[in-house]
Amino acid sequence: MGLITVDLRDRKQLWEQLVDNVRDLILQGELLPDEKLPSVRSLARELGINPNTIQKAYSELERQGVILTLPGRGSVVTSKTDDLMQRQKQKMRDELALMAARAAEIGITRSEFEAMAQSAWRAEKGKEEDV
Length: 131
Known about the structure:
two-stranded antiparallel sheet, 5 helices, elongated
């Protein structure tokens, strides 16, 4: 498949990296609803890691409602990717609320905070254009 990757030097557990990677690929539209994921064995071979690690990641993704495992068909992306997007947006709102509260605590004004957010957004958009 080539899209799913892990970083062996990352301190995060491999199965957690896989969960995050698959979720991100779905949110970015790289993996579409009803698209088949690689089999546990083939992905383990491709990444050079233990199949049990892949199975743990797939089980967690299924528990989260991100993928479905269908008998005889393997694992596929669920057609309910809107739920995943809504959960990610809520997580982002929560993180922004914490950042805003912290900014207020240290004396950053609303306009300064908004300017920082806009600057960060522009910088991130600039990275995408460089790719």
